[in-house]
Amino acid sequence: MNNDIFPCLWYDGDAKQSAEFYCKVFGGEITADTPVVMNIDVFGQRLMLLNGGPQFKKNPSISFTVLCDTEDEVQKYWDQLIDGGMALMELGSYSWSTKYGWVQDQYGVTWQLFFGEKEGEQKIVPTLMFIHENNGKAKEAMELYTQTFPDSKIGSILTYGQGSEGHDIQEPSESVQHAQFIIDHYNLYCMDNSYDHQFDFNEGISLVVMTDDQQQTDQYWNTLTADGGRESMCGWLKDKYGLSWQIVPKKLIQLMNDSNQEKAYKVVQAMMKMQKIIIQDLEDAYNS
């Protein structure tokens, strides 16, 4: 499983409580514990929790589907996640699963708990909802993402025309009800939705991509910011659909974690001024 791509969740000071909560719910462990960044390992997958401040709120445009082995497992997670949270789709039996529910937890993260046929080993699968001006573009987005990253492919696609029961609004028949795709060995789901939700993609949930070198960094950055995407600061960008990515050279993490705190601080200061991360400039700062 690829741990060079992983989700980042944005918090306003409560990342640590949330990290401890998910480790309890899913049996994970905390692998990095700093005031700004918490990393947790859940089912062998990395999740990053970032204390970024009050600017961004997490929302269901990106949810996390948890593929459960038994109905009891669904129930176990549901009972814990609903505590202080709310149901977006009640726990029950649906055409696509005998035991399924969609819940927003007390920290604003949404989970789709699913018992049924699994695709691959990855247990937690980020699920992208294409809404508003992106509605109908899920297939196009999958094509962009699978062309951008190596070892990628589009898997199953179910359109609304093929299976629309359980949905109260008439979606265009060619729109995606559920699809699965892989970027660099990392499994994702997506869907189109024409409902006028009060939310859309934002920085509250982003996808982090750890890169090996400047060439890879440049390639991902240039491809994802093209055609209406936009550059942000510190390795953050938004693609043409408004989905946030962090393109992070592994060298940055290595230099920031250097035992010489003065050098590490210089690296951080240099990084704070950058949009796309330039590895050579980080090394120059480190050696200055």
TrEMBL record:
Pfam families from the xrefs?
Answer: 3-dmu-9_3-mt
**What range(s) does the VOC domain occupy?**
4-116
SUPFAM superfamilies tied to this protein: Glyoxalase/Bleomycin resistance protein/Dihydroxybiphenyl dioxygenase (SSF54593)
User: Transmembrane residues, as ranges?
Assistant: none
Q: Which organism is it from?
A: Chryseobacterium phosphatilyticum
Give the classification, highest ranks.
Bacteria, Pseudomonadati, Bacteroidota, Flavobacteriia, Flavobacteriales
Q: Tell me what this protein is called.
A: VOC domain-containing protein
Which CDD domains does this UniProt record tie to the protein? PhnB_like (cd06588)
